[in-house]
Amino acid sequence: MVPENILNAYQASVEKYKKDEVIFEENDNAHHYFQIHQGQVKMNNYNENGKEFIQGIFYAGDSFGEPPLFADIKYPAAAVALEDSLIYKLSKPKLINLLEEQPKVHFHITERLSKRLFYKSLMASEISSEEPEHRIVSLLHFLKKHVHHLKDHEEFEVDLKRQQIADLTGLRVETVIRACKNLEKKNKIRIIKRKIFF
Questions:
Q1: pTM for the full model?
Q2: Given strand 41-46, what is the order of strands in its sheet?
Q3: What Cα–Cα distance (Å) separates residue 25 from each residue in 42, 43, 75, 160, 166?
Q4: Most exposed among 51, 111, 153, 183, judged by the fewest C-beta atoms under 10 Å?
Q5: Which domain of life is it from (predicted)?
Q6: Which CATH architecture has domain 130-197?
């Protein structure tokens, strides 16, 4: 998102996080901008019954946790490394200075945040009203277009486990497994050696 040479120029540090290490907790105050140099991060929280809901999964080049930073509110979810990761960390005052001095970067961050808001709105609608197969296909369409930047006719390997798909769509993993088998029968996805292709 923010070019690494610019992050370095504004004195961002690079922090190491081990797999499953917490980067920040739900309800922590937001004081830093985070951007992944290497690895994967999920933002998640749990309902009263202990079911995990994944708010998002972020990859190398992605930033995460900005809305609370800009809105001066607490994090609504935790951030956890899904694998060993290297993450840029920039203090809020330095980020504000960067945005004031780098309008193209400012615009790019605004654009990315708008896409995330679109995804949240889409998934909120899907989770509240749509059938499991439809929810899964909507998620896969979003990943194809907005994460992998592919056209409709291009196929990609879905790099999510069944449990992660369940946590992103508000479904049980057993429901995801059944729905994926049905989608395969309808030729909407391909499953090869347990990997989903869409």
A1: 0.77
A2: 22-24, 78-81, 41-46, 52-58
A3: 12, 9, 7, 23, 22
A4: 153
A5: Bacteria
A6: Orthogonal Bundle (1.10)
